[in-house]
């Protein structure tokens, strides 16, 4: 039992030390242009995502949060 406990404590200490050494760097001003490119966006095509959201909210018979109009019938 002592070997297991010692192994767990050592593993925990190594993990904590590795986490403490991690320092995320802020985005530099010259890197923001790259992040603003269309290929870096989560939604590549705004019209396609709008249509997907409209279909989803029409099937769920609910709206809200994304600017999609209409109710459960799917006519809007």
Describe this entry's structure for a reader:
This protein is mostly helical and 76 residues long. It has a domain at 45-76. It is 51% helix and 0% strand. The chain contains three helices and no strands. It has helices spanning 2-21, 32-35, 46-60. The radius of gyration is 24 Å and the shape is elongated. 1% of the residues are buried.
Poorly predicted regions are none
Give the proportion of residues in helices.
40-55%
User: Gap between N and C termini, in Å?
Assistant: 66 Å
Global Rg: 24 Å
Structural class: mainly alpha
For the sheet with most strands, the description reads: none
Number of strands: 0
Number of contiguous helices? 3
Order of helices and strands: HHH
Integer average pLDDT: 78
Determine the strand fraction and express it as a percent band: under 5%
Coarse shape = elongated
Features:
single chain, 76 residues, mainly alpha, elongated
Summarize the structure.
This protein has a domain at 45-76. Helix content is 51%, strand content 0%.
Helix and strand topology:
Blueprint: H1 2-21, H2 32-35, H3 46-60
